[in-house]
Write a structure and sequence with these properties.
Strand order of the largest sheet: 2-3-1-4
InterPro entries: Dabb, Dimeric_a/b-barrel, HS1/DABB1-like
Distance between the termini: 30 Å
Structural class: alpha+beta
CATH class: Alpha Beta
Number of helices: 4
Number of domains: 1
Strand content: 25-35%
Helix content: 25-40%
Mean pLDDT: 93
Protein name: Stress-response A/B barrel domain-containing protein
CATH topology: Alpha-Beta Plaits
Order of helices and strands: EHEHEHHE
Low-confidence stretches: none
Shape: globular
Subunit structure: Homodimer.
Number of strands: 4
Radius of gyration: 15 Å
Pfam family, one: Dabb
Length: about 110
């Protein structure tokens, strides 16, 4: 199957210290060897009709579905997930195999 992505779209509750959540997430994934990469971002266009209120996205890449399963079942993930979920008004999570449709350009040597 190859690489797998774990994608989370979230809307934080009013009053949540988002920077603290981001720091916690960054620390968590930095300690988890099965996480190949971690990216996050905040919506910049604010098209409510399209975003349905979601403001942030978190994307984790794993080498395999087994690595994703190991991450999801890890005690550190479980501990952080409680804090993370308590900070959210709503969330959508999708896990999918990566299909590379356009590779990044090669960097000059």
């Amino acid at each position: 199957m190859g690489e797998v992505k774990h994608l989370c779209l979230v809307k934080f509750k009013e009053g949540v210290a988002v920077d603290d959540v981001l720091k916690g997430m960054t620390q968590l994934v930095s300690e988890m060897d099965m996480v190949k990469s971690f990216e996050w971002g905040q919506d910049i266009l604010n098209h409510e009709m399209l975003t349905q209120g979601f403001t942030h996205v978190f994307s984790l890449t794993f080498a395999s579905a087994d690595d994703l399963t190991s991450y999801m079942n890890h005690e550190r993930h479980a501990a952080f997930a409680g804090t993370f979920m308590a900070a959210l008004e709503k969330v959508v999570v999708i896990d999918f195999p990566v299909v590379l449709a356009k590779p990044p350009p090669l960097l000059p040597a």
